[in-house]
Amino acid sequence: MLLHEPSLASTWLELGSRLRYRGRLDDRTRELIICRVGARTRSAYELHHHTPLALAAGVSRAQLDALDHTDPPGGLFTDRERDLIHYADAVLAAAVTDRHTKAVLRWLADAELVELTGLVAYYLAVSRFLAAMAVDVETDG
After folding, report:
1. In sequence order, which residues have a C-beta less than 8 Å from that of residue 112 and are 6 or more positions away?
2. Tell me: the pLDDT tens digits for 84-127?
3. At what angle do helices 110-132 and 44-56 cross, to 10 degrees?
4. Which of the four pLDDT bands, split at 50, 70 and 90, describes residue 2?
5. Distance CA 1, CA 130 (A)
6. C-beta contacts of 121-127 below 8 A and 24+ residues apart
7. Distance CA 118, CA 129 (A)
8. What's the rounded Cα separation, in Å, for the pair 46 and 44?
């Protein structure tokens, strides 16, 4: 769908590529957060594509299943992961407070916080774009 507007497509894809392949966040953290965004935005497309990547990066099936809960069970996630998930939720709700930011800065450097925020915002935009354009999950075959 994006290819109908080539300059937007190249810019959009460059940002996504930067966040996924040239970022500071480790693969596990990145895919955990992308899957949280996919779960909270009900993006079947994102979950279809990122679940295998998250599993390969070390996120467990139980953790992925728990991402669909409003407040994921504490026993499945480290304190760091819970703080990052809560921050992602706050970004999705446009409700980030100093408390959220301070919690994340216990674990991440400033540049990583900026990247985390950009990652959540980017995949929120992707999920909304896919929904608006009625992009279906590809099926094998």
Report:
1. 24, 25
2. 999 999 999 999 999 999 999 999 999 999 999 999 999 999 99
3. 140
4. low
5. 9
6. 121/91, 122/15, 122/16, 122/19, 123/33, 123/34, 123/37, 123/38, 123/41, 123/46, 124/37, 124/41, 124/91, 124/92, 126/16, 126/43, 126/46, 127/37, 127/38, 127/41, 127/42, 127/43, 127/45, 127/46
7. 16
8. 6
The upper half-sphere exposure of residue 107, i.e. CA atoms within 13 Å in the direction of its Cβ, equals 19
Q: Which CATH architecture has domain 23-132?
A: Up-down Bundle (1.20)
Q: Contact 126/16 with Cβ under 8 angstroms? A: yes
Q: Which two tokens stand for residue 74?
A: 């504490």
